[in-house]
Amino acid sequence: MGMATIAGHGFYGLQGSWGRGWLAVCLDGSTRIMETSMPIGYEECALFGTRLLPWLVLQQLVAFPRSLSMITSRLRTVRDHIRWAVSRFHEEDVFFGHGTDNAWDEARQLVLGALHLPWEIADSYLDCRLEVDEISELQRLIKRRINDRVPTPYLLGEAWFCGMSFIVDDRVLIPRSPIAELIEERFAPWLANEPARILDLCTGSGCIGIACAEVFPEAEVALADLSYDALEVANQNI
């Protein structure tokens, strides 16, 4: 495969038909050809073929009105995407309150969670370069967080409660109860002895009952809910 340069950015070209007969190219991450209507730089280009696009064809391609345009993307590392997400969250006035209370923690939760990286990741790992599919997935999730206002735990399918990870989706509320602190303190000073039985009524994801079962292993714990959908989620978390 050949290589050429556009405005100082190297790219590898792939030629083929796309959409209404347009030609598309796959770039190396520095420069990308994308639909002008795509919001916040989310890439949805179909790639075909294996032959380098001639410079003349490329000039004709980007000249078509309302079809494709070329933009420069410098989002390559974990740190880049956290910083970019923070900026976009502030710009779009995103609400926080499902496990975080600020743009920085929200961005870290979304980016690190999507990449299956631990929250306590070493700072040097933040400068690791991402694969193309990882970049596309991160931008897709950040777009949904902003445009659709989908909470990060729903996007990741995971929420934390009492230091435990729970499966969550839109069938249940996102765990964020202050009861977590009471559980961790074993309900002191109000509970003098360990309980024999515990009922988690309207259990949802099951987080409260399951956390209680961890703290009070000798207790008999029951999870109850009117919603069969919620009970399905709770059952996955047991």
Automatic annotation (TrEMBL):
Source organism superkingdom: Bacteria
Example of a GO cellular component annotation carried by this entry: cytosol
Keyword Transferase: yes
Keywords carried by this UniProt record: Methyltransferase, Ribonucleoprotein, Ribosomal protein, S-adenosyl-L-methionine, Transferase
Residue span(s) of domain Methyltransferase small: 195-237
Coiled coil stretches, renumbered: none
UniProt-listed GO biological process terms: methylation
An example molecular function term from Gene Ontology annotations: protein-glutamine N-methyltransferase activity
Protein's name in the database: 50S ribosomal protein L3 glutamine methyltransferase
